[in-house]
Amino acid sequence: MTSGPIEIRVATAQPYDVVIGHGLRDRVLDLVGPDAARVAIIHAPSVADRATALRMPLADAGVAVRVIEVPDAEQAKTASVLTECWRVLGEAGFTRSDVVIGLGGGATTDLAGFVAATWLRGVRFINVPTTVLGMVDAAVGGKTGINTAQGKNLVGAFYEPVGVLCDLDSLVTLPTREVRSGLAEIVKCGFIADPSILDLVETDPRSASDVRSSVMTELIAKGIAVKASSVKGDLREGGGAGGTIGREALNYGHTLGHAIERHEGYAIRHGEAISVGMVFVAELARAQGLIDDDLVDRHRTTLELVGLPTAYRADAWPEVLDAMRLDKKTRGSTLRFVVLDRLASPKILPVTDEYLLRDAYRAVSA
Predict the structure, then answer these.
(1) How sure is the predictor about 125, in pLDDT bands with cuts at 50, 70 and 90?
(2) Angle at CA 144, nearest 5°, toward 140 and 147?
(3) 50 is known as an active-site residue
(4) 6-171 is a CATH 3.40.50.970 domain
(5) 9 in the Ramachandran plot: left (φ > 0), alpha (ψ -120 to 50) or beta?
(6) Of residues 27, 38, 124, 143, which has the active-site annotation?
(7) Is 331 a catalytic residue?
(8) Which one of the listed residues 254, 262, 269, 300 is annotated catalytic?
(9) pLDDT of residue 237
(10) Which of 57, 175, 191, 220 is paired with 200 by a 20 to 30 Å CA distance?
């Protein structure tokens, strides 16, 4: 990979660039632009120092900056936190020429994007993800939203940022478990679109897990490229050209994964839940004769190489089944899963047979 910043174009109706590199803080001024009188930086407590550092060049340029600290992780994605953010914007007199910045992990950027999408029916926003998961998943693609008691991301909007800055310096203090969570989304991109990702992980899992390595930089860039390609022409999950699956492919492993997250009260990491979800849909695809034993085994092997779980509690089945029924891909009483019919070839599989689902779940039960 090049030693300088990597730029990936997300070519949707309102194109923007994702910049990956080191020392990107000052680039935020270019994205904010000359018309913004006010900027709100929405951040989690764990990155308060980065919020202060990001504020400095903006304040020096004469921009009035409001820093809004929100709870960590999924606890930020609630109606009460959203309302508090609106209150701050209202008291600050935010107008349509002003800017919201989401600084933190995926939950923070999901919330910040939804704040921007809903304030005055839409103001500009910038994503500055500080986790592997945030960089490769939540910050790119225009999905914003919050959770409800009934499920994850059930309230939200498709709303695109004006730019995304992935400063790799922010990754060096991440806990190992958080890095692994992000790797799950990268491995997912390998199974649905770019098998070279799987080759990199399998060849050198240690470097793949090291945020200082060039391998990790390459994996992040490849994951973002897959997402950029998937959302092109299908921002709102209506399906791709010629009846292809489109961006729904990015939900590989997410139907069960989101259900596990809800069952755990969001105490489990997103990537950990998605890891189990990917093995589950691999088992489901094998039961339908779509993929062979080797590809199912590759799911377990690759995910376990980077320390991710591939099984979940057997006794949780009734609760996770109920949660899956609230998945956004569900149509009526029919659950719809993203599965593979071969490596890098995702499709939608409608399932009405609860026994088929239960058998696949048994195969991932601990």
Answers:
(1) very high
(2) 130
(3) no
(4) no
(5) beta
(6) 143
(7) no
(8) 254
(9) 78
(10) 175
Catalytic, out of 227, 232, 262, 286: 227
27, 38, 258, 300: the active-site residue: 258
263 given a catalytic annotation: no
The residue annotated as part of the active site, out of 237, 248, 272, 283, is: 237
Active site residue 121: yes
Cβ neighbours, 10 Å, residue 336: 17
Helix ranges (DSSP H) in the chain: 28-32, 48-60, 79-92, 106-118, 132-133, 176-192, 196-203, 205-208, 214-231, 254-263, 270-287, 293-305, 317-324, 354-362
pLDDT at 78 over 90: yes
Q: Is 347 in a helix, a strand, or coil?
A: strand
Q: Which of 77, 188, 222, 247 is catalytic?
A: 247
Cα 206 to the center of its chain, rounded Å = 23
150 pLDDT band (50/70/90 cuts)? Answer: confident
Task: Say whether 153 is catalytic.
Answer: no
Q: Which fold has domain 177-208+234-362?
A: Dehydroquinate synthase-like, alpha domain (1.20.1090)
Higher pLDDT, 120 or 152: 120
CA atoms of 318 and 314, how far apart (whole Å): 9
Instruction: Mark whether 147 is an active-site residue.
Output: no
Q: Is-catalytic flag, 143?
A: yes
The pTM of the full predicted model, rounded to 2 decimals, is: 0.93
What pLDDT score does 22 carry?
Answer: 94
Q: Which of 127, 147, 153, 251 is catalytic?
A: 251
Which residue in 43, 66, 270, 286 is the catalytic one?
A: 270
Q: Where are the domains of the chain?
A: 6-171, 177-208+234-362
Residue with tokens 């590759």: 298
Q: Is 313 a catalytic residue?
A: no
- Is 254 noted as a catalytic residue in this protein? yes
pLDDT band at 332 (very low <50, low <70, confident <90, very high): low
Mean pLDDT score of the chain, rounded to an integer?
Answer: 94
152 noted as active-site residue? no
